[in-house]
């Protein structure tokens, strides 16, 4: 295992974007590849799946209460693993399935909420993401979904536009993952994210994919 010194906290990345862009599969693949390279990594799953299992409405029919529960739970899970401690869990890197973009579902469905907005912005300011990645819509998107999110292509596109506008409005720096000639670009996405992480952590080049 590599001893990564990062101010006592785990390196944290967020995979952002509208639903059915492959964030969950990418998070699992990145976690696996980083672990193979001796980097203790934790993938933090998207909270909307838990919300649905608890009977909270998501997608087009969501409520303010449901979205606030998602935001609070997401933040709590990130904080749970953010700090490296002598006694575990003691992860060196976190891969978050969603980030600041989770707020966009609240604003899109129930309107702007200043308290929720400031909560997510303050979290990003006080416990920053080392990297934000934006996943684009691909041809295989909705057809490959896991069944939690809406299969309405219009809603998917609306959220893509909303997230992009939000990131620009709040001046978040992010890396947009490319759509390649391959209909399934996720292998290239894994390589890009893993290599960027290794470079950010200043690890040896032989660990690059």
Describe this structure in words.
By secondary structure, this protein is of the alpha/beta class. The chain has a single domain, classed as P-loop containing nucleotide triphosphate hydrolases (Rossmann fold, 3-Layer(aba) Sandwich). It is built from seven helices and five strands; from the N terminus they run βαβααβααβαβα. The chain has a five-stranded parallel beta sheet with strand order 2-3-1-4-5, with helices on both faces. It is globular. It starts with 10 loop residues before the first strand and ends in a 9-residue tail after the last helix.
Q: Quick recap of the structure?
A:
The chain is built from seven helices and five strands; from the N terminus they run βαβααβααβαβα. It has a five-stranded parallel sheet, sandwiched between helices.
List the helices and strands and how they pair.
Elements: E1 11-16, H1 23-36, E2 41-44, H2 48-53, H3 64-82, E3 93-97, H4 102-110, H5 114-126, E4 131-134, H6 153-169, E5 175-176, H7 186-200
Parallel strand pairs: 1-3, 1-4, 2-3, 4-5
Helix pairs in contact: 1-7, 3-4
